[in-house]
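Query form — protein Bactericidal permeability-increasing protein

QUESTION: What is the three-dimensional structure of this chain?
INPUT:
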Amino acid sequence: IDDLAEVDYSLNSFPAVFRPFIDLDLKGIVYPTGNHTDPPYAAAPFAVPVQSDSMLYLAFSEYFFQTSSFAYYTAGAFDITIAEETCSYFNISTEIFSSIIPEVAKYSVTPYPVMLKLMATEIPVISLVQDSFTVEMQGSMEVFALLPDSTTQSLFTTNITANTSIALNIFDQKLMGSLCLNRLQFSLAHSNVGFFEISLLENILSYILQTEVVTSANGK
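ANSWER: The structure tokens for Bactericidal permeability-increasing protein are given below.
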């Protein structure tokens, strides 16, 4: 698939050949590249609706998406760093955070660039629903100040819970996906600048993360 994941689409059994169609039962297991350890899921059987008005039908099970999530989580694909060089719309700095968190202003009088490190703490849970699928993610985000001597100083760490819906459609012979962020919640896990109400920070962090996720999705 890419540098992080491989897919095993070998046949599970001999093709079933009928007069009007051929039925191919493929494995559809995604592994981290170079590591074909079986994922911690069991493949459940599913039936494909009987239709005959198109030449080709493809059906993907929830198991396929679950193993994809496991493979990319194992490969570290959900660990993201947002810094001044990679953030498309914001020059994020301690000055911005100081405007809503007085504790940061007391800690850092001189404005410094800020780096956000996001990490998935659990394997994202993917569930298929009608016409789309949902992704539930648990993670953490650590906020660093980038100091003049090229070192970093951790300011605080938050826990993140996110729920998104992804709908897939075929447009102009291309498979397109639309992303909707249903829920994004933060809680303060650790702070080096003193305790503060996380609600003061939620709006700006939600906006930054939503903007960067949408930008990354459109870029790919």
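ADDITIONAL NOTE: The beta strands are 5-8, 16-17, 22-23, 29-32, 80-82, 114-120, 125-129, 132-146, 152-171, 174-191.
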